[in-house]
Structures are given as C-alpha cells and as structure tokens.
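Posting here for the record, re: zinc ion.
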Amino acid sequence: MSFFCIPIVCGIKQWDKQYDSNPQLNSLYCPNCHNYSVGPVKRREFISIWFIPLFPIYWGKQLRCPICQWRQDFKTRQQVDKVVQEQKNLAR
Ligand SMILES: [Zn+2]
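Prediction output follows.
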C-alpha cells in the first residue's frame, strides 16, 4: 500500500437548471438538428477534485438543445424574448 496509489479524481462538474418553465420558451427551434426542443437553462461549470467543485469556469445562461447538445449563451431575458418573437414571425 502506497500513499501515491490514491488517485486524484479531477474533472469538470456541470449543472443545467431550468430557467423558465414556460412551454413557449422551451420549444424553440434548434438551428443545428431542426427540432423544436431548445430551452433556456442556467448553467454552471466547475473544476472539481474528488467531486468537490473548486473553481467556477462558467457561470451563466444558455439556450440549450437537449437532443444535439447545441448551446448558445444569452445575457438577459429580453434576448430570449426576442428569439421567441423572431421564431413566431418565421412560423407565420
Ligand atoms: Zn438540436
């Protein structure tokens, strides 16, 4: 038994939390896989050691497609509303 045999488990821990449960916001068009499944999420990424999150490397909001994992950052609610509005106009 040696001390050096203990593996240091270092990785990235990430969370996606739902941003808004409004169904209109969670069925946006995905430009990558062409499904209507994109929705806004609050995203956090940390460097972790031993499954303990240490340093945040990403902290923000994204539009995410759960099918193809396409993502795009956004800053404000207004930006999301604008995308919703644009897509409504396209559908007409
Ligand atoms: Zn997609």
